[in-house]
Structures are given as C-alpha cells and as structure tokens.
C-alpha cells in the first residue's frame, strides 16, 4: 500500500525507507531484526508504528536517529537531526528542567540568552511554565516526559538545520505512565503536534493509542519486522477492532 502524504509541495519527505534490513551479528547466530522495510513519514505527518514486543520497533527508530546503521537497503533522511523521546525520560539528574531543555541548544552552539528564551517557550508549550528550575526528581513521571518532549523539540529546532522538515521519534513514551496521565499526555502531544507541525514517528504496542494519535498506523510483523499493513485512521476511529485482529494474527503466526 502506498502512503498518502498531505505535505505542501515544497516540503521534503523527512524520512523514507527503501527495503531496509537490519541484522545483529552474523552467520548462524545472526538475529534478523528488520527485513525489507519500506516506510515513509511525510512532512508534518503523524505515523504510528505498531508491533508486538521484540519485532524491531526500537531498532527501526535507532536507524532513523542515526544511532545504528542498516545492514541492507537505504534510509533517505531529509529531516533536521531527529530527536528521540524514550519510554524513560532519561533527563540529566543534575540539571534543572530548563537546563535539560537547553542542553541540545547548548550543544548546537546557540547563545545563552537565545537558548534561555527558547527553553522557556518550550516549557510553556508543554505546560511546565514556572517549573523550569525544578530538578527531575522533584517532578512526576508525566512531568518528566513533558520535559523530555520539550528537550526533543529543542533539538529539532536548532537553527543549523533551518528549512528542513523536522521529525520527532517517540519510542513508547507513555507506556510507563499510569492510564490517566497517559491519556492526558496523548491529548497534549496532539495539541503540540498541531502547534509545531513537526512530523512524528511514534512507536507503540497499544492499538488504541496508535489509532487515537496517528493519521496513519503501520503494522510491523513479528521478527523479522516488516510492514504488514497500513491504515489511514484519521477518519476511522473504529479501526481499532480491525487493527487488533490483524495484530493478533501476526503475533499468533509466530507463537512458539
Ligand atoms: N544490539 C543488539 N544486539 C543483538 N540483538 C539485538 C540488539 N538490539 C535488538 N536486538 C534484537 O532485535 C530484536 C528487535 O528488538 P527491538 O527493536 O528492541 O524490538 P521492539 O522495540 O519492537 O520490542 C529483538 O529480538 C532483540 O533481541
Ligand atoms: Mg522497543
């Protein structure tokens, strides 16, 4: 199935996979995590990548983030350097919330006054205005994920890559949170996505989350992960049942 992308014609596609494969190790002991993956995320598009545990979702994100390299195929990246939000916020415990958000700007050489202002603006965007001087241990899990999101947005907006579409990678960012906080943050993420226009590739094993957040849901098979099916879910909230059935099918076909 081909991806439909509603990008303005002058916008490049942030990322496109061409038959991407990834194996860890070699010979008989090799673990093939991904095989022949074709996937693209259009400018400003919100894509949810859905799959069972161990099917290669994190591996795929790591390839986009440049943390690892494919063993076959090609990844075309037209985005500014993608930032990743992980399941755990992974904040620097010795830095304040504002300090954490400023970190990627500092590394990009953004002058102090400018990065202060940018961090304040991003903390406001994630509704943490006034909490910039708190350290991670003083914040709740949900608040720490808000800081992680602000930090990721800071690193996708650095001026060196101006003009390129931005891309945010999220690896099951809400799965360690309680159900109520998760629900709130899903809503917040949608608001922030609409406000920033960044493209998002969001990994989850939760069908409801994928359908609520994504414009498009891409189902990966069990390992080796490849794209099994895609759904345009913008106007199809009742796709949950159908996608659940498909997910169960790919899981059971690999059950030992
Ligand atoms: N660095 C690595 N070395 C060897 N095997 C790995 C490595 N990273 C991931 N794998 C294997 O690749 C498969 C996919 O892992 P992963 O991408 O983490 O899955 P998911 O995120 O979908 O749960 C798993 O079988 C995992 O054990
Ligand atoms: Mg994972």
TrEMBL record:
Keywords: ATP-binding, Nucleotide-binding, Transport
UniProt GO MF annotations: ATP binding; ATP hydrolysis activity
Domain ABC transporter: 15-247
Gene3D superfamilies noted in UniProt: P-loop containing nucleotide triphosphate hydrolases (3.40.50.300)
Pfam families registered for this protein in UniProt: ABC_tran (PF00005)
CDD domains for this protein: ABC_NrtD_SsuB_transporters (cd03293)
PANTHER family for the chain: ALIPHATIC SULFONATES IMPORT ATP-BINDING PROTEIN SSUB, TAURINE IMPORT ATP-BINDING PROTEIN-RELATED
This protein's name: ABC transporter ATP-binding protein
Organism: Kribbella soli
């Amino acid at each position: 199935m081909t991806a439909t992308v509603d990008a303005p014609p002058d916008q490049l596609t942030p990322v496109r996979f061409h038959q991407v494969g990834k194996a860890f190790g070699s010979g008989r002991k090799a673990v093939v995590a991904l095989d022949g993956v074709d996937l693209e995320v259009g400018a400003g598009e919100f894509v949810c990548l859905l799959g069972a545990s161990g099917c290669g979702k994190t591996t795929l994100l790591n390839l986009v983030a440049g943390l690892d390299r494919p063993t076959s195929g090609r990844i075309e990246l037209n985005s500014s350097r993608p930032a990743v939000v992980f399941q755990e916020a992974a904040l620097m415990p010795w830095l304040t919330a504002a300090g954490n958000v400023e970190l990627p700007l500092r590394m990009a050489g953004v002058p102090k006054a400018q990065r202060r202002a940018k961090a304040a603006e991003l903390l406001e965007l994630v509704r943490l205005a006034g909490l910039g001087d708190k350290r991670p241990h003083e914040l709740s899990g949900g608040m720490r994920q808000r800081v992680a999101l602000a930090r990721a947005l800071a690193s996708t907006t650095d001026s060196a890559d101006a003009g390129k579409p931005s891309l945010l990678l999220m690896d099951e960012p809400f799965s360690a949170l309680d159900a109520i906080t998760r629900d709130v943050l899903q809503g917040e993420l949608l608001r922030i996505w609409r406000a920033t226009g960044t493209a998002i590739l969001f990994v989850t094993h939760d069908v409801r989350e994928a359908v609520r957040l994504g414009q498009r849901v891409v189902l990966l098979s069990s390992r080796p992960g490849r794209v099994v099916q895609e759904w345009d879910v913008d106007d199809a909230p009742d796709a949950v049942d159908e996608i659940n059935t498909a997910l169960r099918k790919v899981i059971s076909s690999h059950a030992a």
